[in-house]
Amino acid sequence: MIEALDLTVRYRSQNEIHVALKNVSLTVPTGxxxxxxxxxxxxxxxxxxxxxxxxxxxEGKVSIDGEPVTPAKQKIGFIPQNYGLLPWRNVExxxxxxxxxxxxxxxxxxxxxxxxxxxxxIDGLERRYPGELSGGQQQRxxxxxxxxxxxxxxxxxxxxxxxxxxxxxxxxxxxxxxxQQYEVTTVLVTHYVEEALYLxxxxxILSANPGHxxxxxxxxxxxxxxxxxxxxxxxxxxxLRNLIKxxxxxx
Length: 251
Known about the structure:
Layout: E1 2-13, E2 16-28, E3 33-37, H1 44-52, E4 59-64, E5 67-68, E6 76-79, H2 91-101, H3 110-119, H4 135-148, E7 153-157, H5 165-182, E8 185-190, H6 193-199, E9 202-207, E10 212-218, H7 231-250
Parallel strand pairs: 3-8, 3-9, 6-7, 7-8
Antiparallel strand pairs: 1-2, 1-4, 4-5, 9-10
Helix pairs in contact: 2-4, 3-4, 4-5, 6-7
């Protein structure tokens, strides 16, 4: 479980203090996907960095499974927009990177590596480098690295936004299949309403200036098969857009 209580984050810029997030209280239960959507500059990435332990100067309380965020002790998976692959390491080395950081022996995870690469359709690419892969393949490598780590929580910062529309939907399906297997507690930042609706059990709408939670929407369509072409999907998408527009216009 991820929990934030009255979280406020301030940045100092020259002689000014900028408030990125203000009084954010949010609980993401164990095994849930929470989608966060909001305008540019509203603090979405800041929220993920706090959960990841990258930002540790803040007001309020933040915890993972009841304990303070401590990356050295907790396994926190983080997938950034650019996939986070090291260009000078091949696919196998990139996938093993998370385990290496956690000092896990490769030999004990070799079979798991081969299994997840096969599951993601990237077996046979072990010796290639990120620059030799398509965007979709790079994303699969990033997912393989994260899920091989078996993280306590997974944080995703607009992970599919650099992909074309068709590949993006395909990767959403690939991720969802993995999540169904591992059911890792996940916070997904996105600026696509349809993506939030397809992948989020809970959808959080952030408003800007400064970032705060304007609404939390429970998603009744989550997990109900291929919902993208269902009338209910379009209807709820329209409702979310209207809610977001009202929220952002009032900010």
